[in-house]
Amino acid sequence: MISLTKDSEKYVIATFSNEIEKLNIVISDKVKAKLTAVIDDNCRHLIIDLATIKYIDSSGFGSLVTIFNHAKNREVGLSLCNISNETMDLLSITKLDQVFDIKADLKTAIDSISE
To answer: Does the N terminus or the C terminus of the chain have fewer Cβ atoms within 10 A?
Structure first.
C-alpha cells in the first residue's frame, strides 16, 4: 500500500502503490498508523508523495492532519507533493493549503530539505 524510501538521516519518502487512487475511510487508519510510526522512528523529514491519489475524503484529510500534528509535536518536517488538481482545490477550500508544506513535485520537496 505504501512504500518507504529512506535517505540516510535526511528524509523518508512515503509513496502510495499504483493501485491506490483514494485516501479514504478504507485505508486512512492504516496510513495514519504507518506514517506516525515512521515519524516516531527518528525521522527528520517526511515527504508524502500523493502522485497516485486522485481523491481524498474527510477521513483521509483527518489522517493527514493527525500526521501533520504528530510530526509538528516531534519537530519533524512534513511535506506533501504531487497533489492532483481536485485535491488541491479541496485543500484550498478548507484552507489546509495554508497548513501543509506543499511542493509541486518530489524533486522540489527533496531540494527544499537540502537548503
So the answer is: C
Reported as a pLDDT band with limits 50, 70 and 90, residue 9 is confident
Place of cell 504528530: 70
Q: Give 94's pLDDT tier (boundaries 50, 70, 90).
A: very high
pTM of the model: 0.95
Residue with cell 540516510: 8
Category of 38 on φ-ψ map: left (φ > 0), alpha (ψ -120 to 50) or beta: alpha
Packed helices 58-73 and 28-40: angle between N→C axes, nearest 10 degrees: 10
How do residues 69-78 score in pLDDT, each as one tens digit? 999 999 999 9
Q: CB–CB of 2/27 below 8 Å?
A: no
Say how far apart CA 73 and CA 94 lie, in whole Å: 22
Q: Is domain 2-114 given the CATH code 3.30.750.24 in the classification?
A: yes
